[in-house]
Amino acid sequence: MVLRLLMGVSGYLPDVEFITDYSYSLGTRSQSEMVNALKLLNIQCTAVGPDSHLPISIKSNRNIGSYTEVSCRKSSQFLSGLLYLGAISEQDLHIKVTDTITAPSMVHTTINNLRKAGINIEYDDEFRHFFTTGNSRFIASEFNVGADPASTAAILALCASLNSDVTLNGFFEEELGNGAVVNYLINGGAKINFIREDCLNIRSGGAIKAQDFDGSLAPDAVPALAALAAFAEGKSVFYNIEHIRYKESDRISDFRRELDKIGVRSEEKLDQLIIYGNPYGYKGGVIVDGHYDHGLIMALTTVGLHCDAPLIIREPYHVGQTYPEYFSEISTLGANVNELKYSSPIPEDI
């Protein structure tokens, strides 16, 4: 998400180049929607390939246009980046969304924060046309920023899957579907009490109930909740989630490939992930690939904690993208986690 926000802001800077050390995850993600929208504003952009991969160069003389269009079918982040561009521009900006906004709650978060900072943003009743006022001035304010949504969902789902009593600080419902994730966990059997607005207590240990989830409400939570659903009795359908195919990995097909190795039965459609849970857990003893994706690595960890034999996750350090302390913190909760050094060969079977 940070890349797409910065790409928007860079439309008002003289010369910026974006590169990445994560060439097999972030480096493969298409940025064509943002590149095309910036070009419509007379901003010079160059990228790699027809899908506009990193590295990406953006150059601007600040003489940008007043109208652009963007597709948000794959991600609402493109729109958020353009709203930030409009916030710093000298002229009014009209942004038209040409299709569906996959995660409107995240756009509302962007708009609310910009308005708090003094930026005038308006939109139509259909939430398709957005207008920012030029020559705006930012007002110094204080902002409370929640933890990464995928990381928060991963911890909550892990706690809900085990016999646990955990207090979580730094939690903001707005970033997890305004209650959608918490309600999913409660309906699944977890007991959750808010101590204050940014702090909750989660207790679990009983049977997990299968249920469906609208992934457009909290896209980053889908892998974590699907991992939890792997231990429910029955069928859980995660729908409206085509856009999570375009994250750090294909979080539907890539995730299913690893779940299949573990023995989790699942199906997929273009915009759905279907999990058939097994409350008795899984045999384990296999090696799975995290696909350079922090969200999948944390979700696979939750599944691994319910396996009879150890689960090995390749290159787990990619959780460092958002949650470097993830494995050390779940160890304090009782998880049995061991790091295999690169000097030690990974066994072909365990």
From TrEMBL:
It comes from Photorhabdus khanii NC19. One of its GO terms (biological process) is chorismate biosynthetic process. InterPro entries: Enolpyruvate_Tfrase_dom, Enolpyruvate_Tfrase_sf, EPSP_synthase_CS, RNA3'P_cycl/enolpyr_Trfase_a/b. SUPFAM superfamilies: EPT/RTPC-like. Residues 2-328 form the Enolpyruvate transferase domain. The lineage of its organism: Bacteria, Pseudomonadati, Pseudomonadota, Gammaproteobacteria, Enterobacterales. This is 3-phosphoshikimate 1-carboxyvinyltransferase. One of its GO terms (molecular function) is 3-phosphoshikimate 1-carboxyvinyltransferase activity. Its EC number is 2.5.1.19. Pfam families: EPSP_synthase. It comes from the Bacteria. Keywords: Transferase.
